[in-house]
Specification:
single chain, 722 residues, Beta-Lactamase, 51% helix, GGDEF_dom, Nucleotide_cyclase, transmembrane helix
Length: 722
C-alpha cells in the first residue's frame, strides 16, 4: 500500500474511528460519573428531608398540644378533675383530630389524672410512664424556675419533647403545661398540670410519610440496613441513644438517565465518526464553536453574573444609545429602584440568602417589564429604561412596589421586603446623565416619603433637595456652635391628684432664618448624617441641669435607636448623671417603635446596664406598631406611653383598646402615661380607666427652662410620684 493510500486510510477510517472511540469512552465515563454523583446528591436530599420531617413532627406534636393546653377551660377542668371533659378535649379529640396515639394528663405531683390510649395500641400505663417521666420532671423544674426560653409569638408555652421507646415501639413523646391563655387564672410556677402526647413513628406514621414524600418502601427498622439497595436515617434521642432508623429504596435519577442515555451516546459516537471523516465539516464546526464562544464572552462582559441583568456599563451604553436615537415624539422613562430592608435580610439570613433574594427580585422585574432594559448597578439597586412610556409610568412604578412587597420564599422562610422607586421622564433625544440624576433625586424623595412607595421627578424636587442639603449644613453648624438647639419641657401630671409629677425633655431647633423647625423634620436628618448622638447629648445635659435645679422632679428623655444601639451610650448617660449628682432613678428613657424593630443585641445589653444602675425605660407611642405588645413581653420596661391617636377616641372606639393596654400594664407592674390629652372629657375618661399619668395641651404646652422652674415653684415643689 503506497503512502497516499495509507494517509487516506488513516484520515478516512483509522483517525475518525479512533477519535470516535476515545470520545465515546470519555462520554460514557463522564455520564457514569455524573449519574453516580446525581444519585448520591438525590440520596443525601432524601436523608435530609426525612430528618427534617421527624424534627418538624416533634414541633408539630407540641403545637397540636397547645391548641388545647393553652386554654382557661383546660386549666379549670383539669383542676376540677372533670374526666368527661378531659376525655373529650385532651384525649379522644387529640387522637381523632391530630392522630396522637396516647394522651395523659398529670397533676403537679406527676401522678396521672387522666389517661387515653388508642384502642389499637397494646400498651400499659407503665410503658408510657417510663417514656414521659424524665421529660415531665425536667419540664416541672423549668416551670418552677419560671423559665420562658423558647417562647415566641408562635410557641405559646415551654415544653419538653424527645424520641423514645414506648413499650417496644418508637415514638415522639411531648410534654406541655396546661396554662391560661388570657392570664386571668393565676398559677404558681411549678404547680401547673401537665399534658403528655405520644405519636408512634412506625406503622401508619412511616407509611404516610412514604406516600406523601414518595419514599419507596419506607419502613421503620431497629437496625440500619447493610445492603446498598437501601438508604436510611438514624433516629436518636436527645441523649444520643439510638431509637432505630427509617429505611427506604433511594431515588436514583442518575441511573435512570444513564440507562436512557446509552443509545444516545452510541448515536453520538457514530455522528462524531461521520463528522470527523469530513475535514471541511470539522473545520466549519470548529469555527462555529469559536464564534459562539466569542459571543458568550461578550454577553458575560455586559451582564451582571448574579441576575443576568445588564451591568452598569451595558445599561449606561444602552441608555445613551436609545436616548440619542429617540424621535421627537417618543418618550423614555428611567427608573431607579432601591430595595427596602435588604440589609436586614443579609444580616439575619446571610449573604447566600441575600444573593438568592436579589436573583428572585430580578426575575419578578423581568416578569413585570419583559420588554424593558433592566440593569443592576449595585448591591440592591436596579435601573430600568422604559420606552414609549407616556402615561404608563405611574402604573409601572405602582406595580413594581406592589410586586416587590409580596413575600419571597427562600429555603422555607417567608421574606418580606419592599422597594422605593424614583422615576424621571423625557421626550425626544435626552441627556442620559441628566435623566439618571433626576431619577436619583426622585428616588431620594420616595425614601423620604416613608419608603415602599414611588415618586416621579418634578421641577420642585431640585428645590426640595437643595433645601434638604442646606438644612444638613445648617444643622451641622448649629451642633458645632451649640447655639440653636434648645430644650423645652412638657409637664406630666398625676391622674390621681392632678399634681405635677414629672417632665419630658424635648429638643427644638431655632433656626436663625426659618424659626423653629419641627423635630420630625430635623431628627431624621440628624440620624441620616450621623449627628443624632450630638443632639441627644445636648438634651441630656440640659435635662440633667434642670433636674439639679428641681431636686424632686423626675425627667424623661427621648432616645433614638441609633443612640441606644451604640456601645458607649450607657456610659454617656451615667457619666452625665454622676456629673450633676442626680439619682439615676429620676431619669426615664423613652424608646420608640423603630427600636422594637431592630438593634436587639446591642440595645438589650444597654437596657440591662441602664436599668441595673436605676434608670427607667418607657415605650413611647405604644400601640401604633405590631411590635409593641411582643416588645413588652420580651423586654423589661417600667412604663408605656399610650399614643395620642388612641386618646383622641378614648370616649369611642379606642376605649376598649386603652382599657386593655392599662390592664396589661398593671398585670406586668408597669406605669401608664396618656399622651396628647386635650380635653376635660378625655382626662376624666382616662382617670376612670385607671391611667397613672396625663400629658398634653390640656395641662401645658412644652415650656422653656425659665417657665418650667416657675411652674415647679408654683406647684409647691411637690415630690414626683411618676
Amino acid at each position: 500500500m503506497n503512502r497516499q493510500a495509507r494517509r487516506q486510510l488513516v484520515l478516512k477510517w483509522i483517525l475518525p474511528a479512533t477519535t470516535s472511540l476515545i470520545i465515546g469512552c470519555v462520554l460514557l465515563g463522564t455520564l457514569h460519573w455524573a449519574a453516580a454523583n446525581t444519585d448520591i446528591v438525590a440520596q443525601a436530599r432524601q436523608r435530609d428531608l426525612a430528618t427534617l420531617i421527624v424534627s418538624k413532627m416533634q414541633v408539630s406534636v407540641a403545637h397540636d398540644q397547645e391548641s388545647a393546653t393553652v386554654w382557661d377551660d383546660a386549666v379549670r377542668n383539669t383542676s376540677a378533675r372533670d374526666l368527661g371533659w378531659l376525655k373529650s378535649n385532651l384525649g379522644d379529640w387529640m387522637h381523632t383530630y391530630f392522630g396522637h396515639d396516647a394522651a395523659i394528663v398529670l397533676s403537679a405531683d406527676l401522678s396521672p389524672i387522666y389517661e387515653f390510649i388508642a384502642p389499637s395500641n397494646s400498651l400499659s400505663s407503665d410503658d408510657i410512664r417510663v417514656a414521659y417521666m424524665p421529660l415531665a420532671d425536667a419540664l416541672q423544674k423549668r416551670l418552677a424556675a419560671s423559665d420562658t426560653e423558647g417562647v415566641t409569638d408562635r410557641v405559646l408555652s415551654i415544653g419538653e419533647s424527645d424520641l423514645a421507646y414506648v413499650g417496644r415501639r418508637p415514638a415522639i413523646v411531648s410534654v406541655k403545661p396546661i396554662v391560661s391563655d388570657t392570664g386571668d387564672i393565676e398559677q404558681q410556677p411549678g404547680d401547673q398540670n401537665l399534658h403528655v402526647a405520644v405519636r408512634f413513628l412506625d406503622e401508619s406514621f412511616v407509611s404516610e410519610i412514604g406516600k406523601e414524600y414518595q419514599f419507596a418502601d419506607m419502613q421503620f427498622a431497629e437496625d440500619a440496613p447493610t445492603d446498598a439497595e437501601h438508604s436510611f436515617v438514624p433516629l436518636t434521642a436527645r441523649s444520643g441513644a439510638a431509637i432505630g432508623c427509617f429505611t427506604w429504596r433511594p431515588f436514583r435519577p442518575g441511573a435512570s438517565v444513564m440507562k436512557a442515555t446509552l443509545p444516545a451516546v452510541g448515536l453520538a459516537a457514530l455522528a462524531i465518526f461521520l463528522a470527523a471523516s469530513v475535514c471541511g465539516h470539522a473545520i466549519w464546526r470548529r469555527s462555529a464553536r469559536l464564534a459562539s464562544s466569542r459571543e458568550e464572552l461578550q454577553h458575560l462582559a455586559s451582564r451582571d453574573p448574579l441576575t443576568g441583568l445588564s451591568n452598569r456599563a451595558h445599561f449606561s451604553s444602552g441608555l445613551a444609545a436609545r436616548l440619542g436615537a429617540a424621535a421627537q415624539n417618543q418618550s423614555h422613562c428611567v427608573l431607579f429602584i432601591d430595595l427596602d430592608r435588604f440589609k436586614a435580610v443579609n444580616d439575619t439570613f446571610g449573604h447566600a440568602t441575600g444573593d438568592k433574594l436579589i436573583s428572585l427580585v430580578a426575575r419578578r422585574m423581568n416578569e413585570i417589564m419583559p420588554a424593558a432594559l433592566i440593569g443592576r448597578i449595585g448591591g440592591d439597586e436596579f435601573t430600568v429604561l422604559l420606552e414609549d412610556a407616556d402615561d404608563k409610568v405611574a402604573a409601572a412604578c405602582a406595580q413594581i412596589v406592589q410586586r416587590l412587597r409580596e413575600p419571597f420564599e427562600i429555603n422555607g422562610a417567608h421574606i418580606v421586603i419592599g422597594a422605593s422607586v424614583g422615576a424621571a421622564i423625557a421626550a425626544g433625544p435626552a441627556d442620559p446623565s441628566e435623566l439618571t440624576r433626576q431619577a436619583d433625586i426622585a428616588l431620594y424623595h420616595a425614601k423620604a416619603a416613608g419608603r415602599n412607595t414611588f415618586a416621579i421627578f418634578g421641577g420642585h424636587m431640585d428645590e426640595l433637595l437643595r433645601r434638604r442639603r442646606k438644612l444638613e449644613h445648617d444643622l451641622r453648624l448649629a451642633l458645632e456652635t451649640r447655639s440653636q438647639i434648645e430644650v423645652f419641657y412638657q409637664p406630666v401630671y398625676s391622674a390621681e391628684h392632678k399634681g405635677l409629677s414629672s417632665m419630658e425633655a424635648l429638643a427644638r431647633w431655632k433656626h436663625p432664618e426659618e424659626g423653629f423647625i419641627a423635630p420630625d423634620v430635623f431628627i431624621p436628618i440628624a440620624e441620616e448624617i450621623g449627628l443624632i448622638q450630638e443632639v441627644g447629648a445636648i438634651v441630656l445635659e440640659d435635662a440633667c441641669s434642670v433636674m439639679a435645679d428641681l431636686p424632686s422632679i423626675a425627667m424623661a428623655i427621648n432616645a433614638s435607636a441609633l443612640e441606644l444601639c451604640s456601645d458607649g451610650y450607657p456610659l454617656r448617660v451615667l457619666s452625665r448623671l454622676a456629673k450633676w449628682n442626680i439619682d439615676p432613678k429620676r431619669l426615664e428613657i423613652e424608646i420608640t417603635e423603630s427600636l422594637a424593630l431592630g438593634g436587639e443585641g446591642h440595645s438589650d445589653r444597654n437596657f440591662a446596664m441602664l436599668r441595673n444602675a436605676g434608670v427607667r425605660i418607657a415605650i413611647d407611642d405604644f400601640g401604633t406598631g405590631y411590635s409593641s405588645f411582643s416588645r413588652v413581653q420580651n423586654l423589661v420596661v417600667d412604663r408605656i406611653k399610650i399614643d395620642k391617636s388612641f386618646i383622641d377616641a378614648v370616649q369611642g372606639e379606642s376605649k376598649p383598646l386603652i382599657e386593655a393596654m392599662i390592664k396589661m400594664a398593671r398585670a406586668k407592674g408597669l406605669k401608664t402615661t396618656a399622651e396628647g390629652v386635650e380635653t376635660d372629657e378625655q382626662s376624666d375618661a382616662l382617670v376612670a380607666l385607671g391611667c397613672d399619668s396625663l400629658q398634653g395641651f390640656l395641662f401645658s404646652r412644652p415650656l422653656a427652662r425659665a417657665a418650667v422652674i416657675d411652674l415647679y415653684d408654683g406647684a409647691g415643689k411637690q415630690t414626683s410620684t411618676a
